[in-house]
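Worked example 3 (structure in, sequence out).
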């Protein structure tokens, strides 16, 4: 667990493993903890799993303005660089079923 500064907020992320990046996004009202079983499985399979607490959840800052919550997929995608990972053709982003998969690149 660590805090990263991204898009004007502090975001808590859980991360495990090395290799191609897989970003795991939780739904409402969850946190990174929803992915606690998938992180070690991804690491054991040769991936780097990153599960952030989304804006306003867990230990991630909660912006005051409603417009600061728009387009969370774009903001999450741009945040992947702050984890020390570079977005590459192999980067994959997954979300819980309630939110559906957001992007894959």
């Amino acid at each position: 667990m660590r805090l990263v500064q991204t898009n004007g907020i502090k975001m808590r992320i859980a991360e495990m493993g090395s290799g191609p990046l897989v970003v795991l996004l939780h739904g409402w009202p969850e946190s990174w903890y929803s992915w606690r079983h998938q992180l070690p499985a991804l690491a054991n399979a040769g991936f780097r799993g990153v599960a952030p607490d989304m804006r306003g959840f867990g230990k991630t800052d909660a912006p005051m303005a409603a417009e600061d919550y728009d387009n969370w997929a774009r903001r999450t995608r741009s945040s992947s660089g702050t984890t020390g990972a570079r977005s590459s053709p192999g980067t994959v982003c997954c979300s819980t079923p309630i939110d559906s998969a957001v992007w894959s690149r």
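Notes: The chain has one domain: 2-95. The chain has two helices and five strands.
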